[in-house]
Amino acid sequence: MPFDQSGPWRRWIADPDKIRNIGINLTHFKGLLEERFTFLDVGCNRGYVYDLIARELKQFYYTGIDINPDLIEDAKKFHKQLNCEFEVGDIYDKLPKADIVLCSRLIIHLDDPKSAVEGLLRAAQRKLVLFVGVGKEKREAHDGELFRRFSEKTVRSWGDCEIIKGGSYSTVIYG
Ligand SMILES: C[S@@+](CC[C@H](N)C(=O)[O-])C[C@H]1O[C@@H](n2cnc3c(N)ncnc32)[C@H](O)[C@@H]1O
Questions:
Q1: Residue ranges in the chain whose pLDDT is less than 50
Q2: Residue 2 near ligand 1, beta carbon < 6 Å
Q3: What residue spans define the domains of the chain?
Q4: Whose CA is nearest to atom 11 of ligand 1?
Q5: Domain 9-174 adopts which CATH fold?
Q6: Which helix (H) or strand (E) is 157 found in, with range?
Q7: DSSP helix/strand/coil, 89
Q8: What's this model's pTM, rounded to 2 decimal places?
């Protein structure tokens, strides 16, 4: 299966603060999260972003989608909470709607990021949050896997957005 996560996911599930090391954090859109809300995480891997959200917020329902059934099986095994579910799914297929959609470090690997983002935008009822490399446009292959970085112009061509520049990854918020 493509683009598995080689990161220390067991540690991330055990201690969600460790995820902050890769830069995913909620501070940029936390203001939105005071109410009950639904959250869709596309390319959720083993669901460790759920643990990060659950640490800070209570009133949400999380759906994680990933193309790799083995990862979804692990995600289900490690998350028995009632406010989350995990499903096998492809970013290019019709996605369930949610208030906030997150897609972290997935479209950087895709041949057709534009149509993936169009689907994400259709699913996002309030905000779409992308976690991607932003800088000089780049397309590289390592070990048969594609890695991209998008220019600001490219991410803005997908819709009005706020770009919060990070190191390897930036947070791009639509809506
Ligand atoms: C590099 S990992 C990122 C995982 C996590 N979102 C993060 O940022 O740590 C990419 C994830 O996307 C999943 N993936 C790859 N292609 C996909 C597709 N077409 N639709 C849904 N998920 C996909 C992979 O199985 C993998 O879990």
A1: 1-2
A2: yes
A3: 9-174
A4: 43
A5: Rossmann fold (3.40.50)
A6: helix 152-157
A7: coil
A8: 0.91
